[in-house]
Design a protein that fits this description.
The complex is a heterodimer of chains A (422) and B (444). With 422 residues, chain A is mainly alpha-helical. Chain A has two domains: 2-117, no CATH class; 122-402, Orthogonal Bundle (ABC transporter involved in vitamin B12 uptake, BtuC). Chain A contains 15 helices and five strands. With 444 residues, chain B is an all-alpha fold. Chain B folds into two domains: 1-75 and 400-444, no CATH class; 141-382, no CATH class. Helix content of chain B is 67%, strand content 1%. In chain B, strand 1 (266-267) and strand 2 (274-275) form a beta hairpin. The chains are: A mainly alpha (422), B mainly alpha (444).
Chain lengths: 422, 444
């Protein structure tokens, strides 16, 4: 099987060395030909504001849009040539990818903004984080489960149930922190169901995830109808206020983006770092990965496979529940039916895009969050850009990624396979 | 079927056993695996005690209705008040509970299948046709569900999980709508052209998924999920731009009505009637059944589904099967869109796609990925949808229609976890769920 798959893939693998340089050059040419020439027609400057609200005022950056697009495109093409002609180290290769993406985004912004009202970079960055938090937490939940060998498609259901429970508990008891804990527990409950059916009843995990999502959707719709829509005391729309980190939040540009947000952003920082370190630099993580890669071997050396799977799946549920709570009491406040609107599935894509590592998932989730934010912002700045097309970008990117053009992704080996002690 | 020994609890050997037993044995052929000469009664008892798939399904539905009953009780203030005085008036609490639950389920039955009052009315000179009104609504609701269910089911049989019926539905809907109002053709031909267009529109989306899987190994679950969102966004784009699919002089996301020549006709007179769409769905099910059990292509699909490596060793072009089965799956989902756009709605809006895609998955699971099972499951879910709407009206919103969604989820959860049903009802032995062929992980 593997031999034939390799044979099918061989033409792509042979050319893979060329994929990155060609993509770089193509993106650079898009910068120049599409954005640059279009910006020439508009004949305007692009303006970027770097401060929001009170605090230190930083003068806005104004650049001539067309020349900027040309310059950014030239940099991309140059990096493509560099990448195609010289052998680079791993870190350098990643840097070039980041640089080309940045150039692409900047020239897109230059073009979109040419001759229009100024874009506020700070607000865009804040919006990106706001859109990314549920994706990051959901992807981390998936990471905990799938590294231990349990496929988690139920992230969507965990987010949704967490969002509902957080809203109703926070409204009914008037305590936001109680709501946060309740939302987390609700996600954990879905995680427990996932664990029981997948690990103990050996149910197919992909089917199980889909079914749990259907159930969570049905339950929240039903309870919304029965409880919230009749009694607004159960859906008051309370939200966490922002917490400014003393000192750090005063730093220009960085402060308002990273250190002036709700508790959810700080939880996300902690979760990403903790899981990344624990998964790859601790005995705990080694055991989890062993269970996900080769449960029989792990069992042989005395690791309790089922216990580790149960624990991780439930932990993941608790984490995704926090992400769900963010959707209500962390941002908009009140719950509406199907508020998670596919975030769980995007989180799953971010996890796979990020190759089942917390940092990779973080990067992918931020990219997706940025696309979401752009889909909101760009049409207001430049009505020529259709929001649905921008909104499509992360999904198309994911398809390209899993189709192997960005690089082969490989899941934990025992992912999705129930373990039964021989 | 009930004789299949699954001693090894590991599902991979279990799937291999199923292959060894032959794909044809897994319910395609009506012949049971039990030895000849056994008494019918004994076979029946064995089926019940060992939990054949039909028994498991019935028990799953029963269990789901029980859990649904708990929800109904929980949401009824009269009953919850009665429960608060459980220890002083236990009979009252239980009576109220029984009343609330039985009333809701009776209403559901009357709305979806048969209302006794129409029968007695007919006996006293009323309309006979009115008796069949609930059943005709059920058939109308079931039509798109059967088709998306078939879409998911046929992919299941080839070992692929098609979560993308929703996106393929949109693909079919877009083409059907465009052909429906954009061209003008004579009556019958217009209907056929739209149907074929919808099949092609959905099929292209499915084909693309199969192609990516065959060429690059991209997992169909991810690709179909992503394509769903791409198609929603595409639909939103097309419906919000004049000159695309948006109705002229409209700002809403709504397409023009399709030409009356393109509407699917009905069989039978006014309201109690059967749409041609339902007949198309049944015909499609028969076609899929024929394809799977009587053709080389179908045999290849099932072999690939049972074990791609064994199929490859046996000289079957696995990649070709993947592409072909996804093309057919997409086409069936596209047909589902055609029955809605040309049948009941006659107009495409952004919300038209509803939950046909996800419902298709649950229908296919409940029908155990067998065409006839899918038709029955589609009818059951159609009846639940009709009954849900009816019960919401009958109880003045006391029991909302979306309780049906919970029931559907529970039914499929229980059906897909036979171990739970067996443990609950203390059934012996284990038999396959019929779902062993589905991919088990991202690396598959």
């Amino acid at each position: 099987m593997t031999a034939v798959v390799a044979a099918v893939r061989r033409p792509l693998i042979a050319n893979r060395a060329l994929v990155a340089p060609v993509t770089f050059v193509v993106l650079g040419l898009i910068d120049i030909c599409l954005f640059g020439t279009a910006a020439l027609v508009h004949k305007g400057d692009a303006a970027f504001l770097l401060s929001a609200g009170s605090g230190v005022k930083i003068p806005a950056i104004r650049v001539a849009a067309a020349p900027a697009c040309f310059a950014l495109g030239a940099i991309s093409v140059g990096l493509g040539v560099l990448r195609g002609t010289t052998e680079l180290g791993r870190a350098a290769r990643r840097l070039t990818v980041a640089a080309v993406l940045l150039c692409f985004v900047l020239s897109l912004l230059c073009w979109a903004d040419a001759g229009h009202i100024a874009l506020n970079v700070i607000i865009i960055a804040q919006g990106t984080f706001a859109a990314s938090i549920p994706l990051i937490l959901g992807a981390l939940a998936g990471c905990l489960c799938e590294r231990a060998g349990v496929i988690n498609i139920a992230i969507e259901g965990q987010l949704l149930f967490g969002a509902f429970t957080a809203a109703i508990v926070a409204s009914a008891f008037g305590g936001l922190w109680v709501g946060l804990v309740a939302g987390s527990l609700a996600g954990g409950l879905v995680g427990t169901l996932l664990a029981v059916f997948a690990i103990s009843f050996l149910m197919d995990q992909i089917i199980l995830g889909v079914v749990l999502n259907v159930l969570a959707l049905g339950m929240t719709d039903y309870l919304y109808d029965r409880l919230m829509s009749q009694n607004s005391n159960y859906n008051t729309g309370v939200t966490f206020s922002t917490i400014k980190i003393p000192g750090l939040s005063q730093i220009p540009i960085i402060g308002p983006i990273f250190f002036d947000s709700t508790v959810f952003l700080y939880i996300t920082y902690v979760a990403v770092i903790a899981i990344q370190v624990a998964m790859f630099h601790s005995r705990w993580g080694l055991r989890v990965r062993a269970v996900g890669e080769h449960p029989t071997a792990a069992d042989t050396v005395g690791i309790n496979v089922l216990w580790i799977r149960y624990r991780n799946v439930i932990l993941g549920g608790l984490l995704a529940g926090i992400g769900g709570a963010y959707l209500t009491i962390g941002s908009v406040g009140s719950f509406i039916p199907s508020i998670s609107s596919g975030f769980g599935y995007i989180a799953l894509a971010a996890l796979i895009f990020g190759r089942w590592t917390p940092l990779g998932a973080l990067t992918a989730a931020l990219l997706f969050g940025f696309c979401e934010e752009m889909a909101l912002v760009l049409p207001t700045v430049n009505p020529v850009l259709p929001a649905p097309i921008m909104h499509m970008a992360p999904y198309v990117a994911t398809i390209i990624a899993v189709a192997g053009l960005v690089g082969k992704v490989r899941a934990p080996k025992a992912d999705g396979q129930p373990y039964v002690k021989a | 079927m009930s004789e299949t020994p699954v001693a090894a609890p590991d599902p991979v050997p279990a799937a291999a056993d199923a292959v060894a037993a032959g794909p044809g044995q897994r319910g395609d052929s009506p012949g049971p695996a039990t030895p000849r000469g056994r008494l019918t009664g004994a076979v029946l008892i064995q089926a019940i005690t060992q939990g054949s798939s039909a028994v498991i399904t019935i028990l799953a539905i029963f269990l789901a209705l029980v859990v649904g009953g708990v929800l109904i009780v929980f949401s009824d203030p009269v009953v919850t008040r009665a429960w608060s005085s459980l220890f002083t008036h236990p009979g009252y609490a239980l009576g109220q509970t029984w009343d609330a639950v039985s009333f809701a389920y009776t209403q559901m039955f009357e709305g979806a299948i048969l209302n006794p009052s129409t029968v007695s009315a007919a006996l006293h000179g009323g309309s006979v046709a009115a008796i069949f009104y609930p059943l005709s609504s059920t058939c109308a609701q079931a039509t798109p569900l059967i088709l998306t269910g078939l879409s998911v089911a046929i992919a299941f049989r080839a070992g692929l999980f098609n979560i993308g019926a929703a996106g393929q539905w949109v693909g079919g809907a877009v083409v059907a709508t465009w052909l429906g109002f954009g061209v003008s053709l004579p009556p019958v031909i217009h209907v056929i052209v739209c149907l074929i267009g919808a099949f092609v529109g959905g099929g292209v989306i499915g084909w693309f998924v199969g192609l990516l899987k065959a060429r690059t190994g991209a997992h169909e679950v991810i690709v179909t999920i992503m394509l769903n969102y791409v198609m929603y966004d595409l639909l939103s784009y097309l419906l919000s731009h004049q000159g695309m699919l948006q109705k002229p002089k409209q700002t809403n996301q709504i397409a023009p009505f399709i030409a009356s020549n393109a509407n699917l006709p009905h069989v039978g007179g006014p309201p109690p009637q059967v749409g041609i769409g339902f007949l198309i769905a049944v015909a499609a099910a028969l076609g899929v059944a024929w394809l799977l059990s009587r053709t080389t292509t179908g045999f290849e699909f099932r072999t690939v589904g049972a074990s791609p490596s064994a199929a490859r060793t046996g000289g079957i072009n696995v990649e070709r099967s993947w592409v072909l089965v996804m093309l057919l799956a997409g086409g069936l989902a596209g047909l589902s869109a055609a029955t809605v756009i040309q049948g009941t709605n006659t107009q495409l809006t952004f919300n038209s796609y509803g939950t046909y895609g996800p419902d298709g998955i649950t229908v296919a699971l409940l029908g155990r990925a067998k065409p006839i099972g899918v038709v029955l499951a589609g009818l059951l879910f159609g009846a639940l949808h009709v009954g849900g709407t009816y019960v919401e009206a009958a109880t003045l919103g006391q029991v909302p229609a979306n309780i049906v969604q919970v029931l559907e989820g529970l039914i499929v959860l229980f059906v897909a976890a036979p171990a739970l049903i067996r443990a609950t009802f203390r059934l012996r032995a284990t038999a396959g769920t019929g779902m062993e062929a589905v991919a088990k992980g991202w690396n598959a």
